[in-house]
Design a protein that fits this description.
- By secondary structure, the chain is mainly alpha-helical.
- Helices cover 54% and strands 5% of the residues.
- It has helices spanning 33-40, 44-53, 72-87, 92-101, 104-130; strands at residues 31-32, 61-62, 68-70.
- The longest helix is centred in the C-terminal third of the chain and has 27 residues, at 104-130.
- The N and C termini lie far apart (52 Å).
- The relative contact order is 0.13.
Length: 132
């Protein structure tokens, strides 16, 4: 399932928590689990599992029919968790720690820096292998 909001299009503020691009999330008070799946590209069992693992960040309300009702803030947190797990390669424990400490942007920046250093080292290695 392809998400309506590609992770690369998400913009986080310096705090690392609030999305600055809400255009793809409809302006509603509550979303059913199927709508959240459509927005995020995740399956329902993944959302339910993450809800149990990230209780502090994903807190859907329950309708009288016992159906989960997610708020926009829940969807934002789900998107952040998805980015931390899928793009940044963190474990669930690492993602929890990053969210608690507010280091979601710092992790991405460090990963980008490491990739840049790695590319530069490969370039240096090629120059040294070529010789004088």
């Amino acid at each position: 399932m392809k998400p309506l909001i590609p992770l690369s299009h998400l913009n986080f503020n310096p705090d690392g928590f609030a999305l600055t691009d809400f255009e793809a999330i409809p302006d509603k008070q509550y979303f059913k689990i199927s709508e959240v799946c459509e927005i995020t590209g995740l399956k329902q069992h993944v959302l339910r599992y993450w809800e149990s693992e990230f209780k502090r960040f994903i807190k859907p309300r329950r309708a009288r029919s016992k159906q989960r009702l997610y708020r926009k803030s829940d969807i934002e947190n789900i998107l952040k968790i998805n980015k931390l797990l899928k793009e940044d390669g963190l474990t669930i424990a690492g993602a929890k720690k990053a969210l608690v400490e507010g280091k979601t942007d710092q992790i991405s920046n460090e990963r980008d820096l490491l990739e840049k250093v790695k590319r530069e080292l490969y370039q240096l290695q090629r120059l040294l292998d070529e010789g004088p």
